[in-house]
From TrEMBL:
This is Disease resistance protein RGA3. Gene3D superfamilies: 1.20.5.4130, P-loop containing nucleotide triphosphate hydrolases. The keyword Phosphoprotein does not apply. Residues 170-335 form the NB-ARC domain. It comes from Mucuna pruriens. Coiled coil: none annotated. The keyword ATP-binding applies.
């Protein structure tokens, strides 16, 4: 059952990321729009068979292995989409306007990166086609089960700490809080990126920092925005306004929205957390650089390249938890915080 849920979760994320490129200027610019549409259709068809695969995997080892191959290939596709997002960020940083014309996509500065991405996309497309073809021999039935939650809802984060106990992140919290409270006053606008693999706890770390007593006291205004979904610059600006003001914002054009955001942040020592940011940075930065000295932005991202472009100092690399911290976390999830430890179950747990 675990393979099923993991495969479904990964497919949900990848399909959400694919939708953010399809029909948009970047997909057209890279010449991948039709390929992305085909992949989205293919993955949607595969996803429709997952419910049947869940039931049959226990009696058929081959189906269990197939689910693992699907999950691995989906992760690779997601990495390629991350690379596409990085290309967009790099172009924006260079002041290049992304256009859908064929001529612009063959600019000498960009043709190499376009070729590499296209080659990777062709390879993963072939791999997913083989996986899709393989499923036919299992005679899986296509169904359209009601989704447990939408992709965007699944990925949405908030500033509230939802974990009852967090293990192994005390040093990370202390280091970043010290910087935000003391060192950040040297910059007009400090950007501190936190980089780590998906699932390592970047969001949880950011939540702990956001709610830390020293941070709450130090900053006049604290703002949390989750940007892992398809955020245009306009939607990003509107989301920051709503998070900063606590009120819904009218659907204005970008220019009045940016003026409104500047009015909210003007001469304030604020902390803005951008959870899972990947693009829109250069045009957003010019608007955010209006606060008081010491205003800071904490960014979480999986991509060191994104951190290098956004950060005003070296990024903070989030490491794996120690074996001891992993065990403490496992015990909490498996037995609960107040359960009496059972020796036989402890032995099995440590083997896992």
């Amino acid at each position: 059952m675990l393979e099923y849920y993991m495969a479904e979760a990964v497919l949900d994320v990848v399909l959400g990321n694919l939708s953010s490129f399809i029909g948009k200027e970047l997909g057209l610019f890279l010449g991948l729009d039709q390929e992305l549409k085909r992949l989205a259709s293919l993955l949607t068809t595969i996803k429709a068979t997952l419910e049947d695969a869940e039931e049959k995997q226990f009696s058929d080892r081959a189906i269990k292995d197939w689910l693992q191959k699907l999950k691995d290939a989906s992760h690779l596709l997601d990495d390629i989409l991350d690379e596409c997002a990085y290309v967009a960020l790099g172009l924006e940083y260079q002041g290049v306007k992304v256009q859908s014309s064929c001529l612009s996509s063959f600019h000498p500065k960009h043709v190499v990166s376009h070729y590499k991405i296209a080659k990777k996309m062709k390879s993963i497309s072939k791999r997913l086609e083989e996986i899709a073809e393989e499923r036919t021999k299992f005679h899986l039935t296509e169904t359209l089960p009601e989704r447990r939650s939408g992709v965007m809802e699944w990925r949405q984060t908030t500033s509230f700490v939802t974990q009852p106990q967090v293990y192994g992140r005390e040093e990370d919290v202390d280091k970043i809080v010290d910087f935000l409270v003391h060192a950040s006053h040297l910059e007009d606008l400090s950007v501190y990126p936190v980089v780590g693999l998906g699932g390592l706890g970047k969001t949880t770390l950011a939540q702990l920092i956001f709610n830390h007593e020293r941070v709450v006291i130090h900053f006049e205004l604290t703002i949390w925005v989750c940007v892992s979904e398809d955020f245009s610059l306009k939607r990003m600006t509107k989301a920051i306004i709503e998070a900063a003001s606590g009120h819904a914002c009218d659907d204005l054009d970008l220019e009045p929205l940016q003026r409104k955001l500047k009015d909210l942040l003007q001469r304030k020592r604020y902390l803005l957390v951008l959870d899972d940011e990947q693009e829109n940075w250069q045009r957003l930065k010019s608007v955010l650089a209006c606060g008081a000295k010491g205003a800071s932005i904490l960014v979480t991202t999986r991509l060191p390249k994104v951190a290098a472009i956004m950060g005003t100092m070296p990024h903070h690399e989030l490491s794996m938890l120690s074996d001891n911290d992993c065990w403490e976390l496992f015990k909490q999830r498996a037995f609960g915080p107040n359960e009496v430890e059972q020796v036989e179950l402890m032995v099995i747990g440590k083997e896992i």
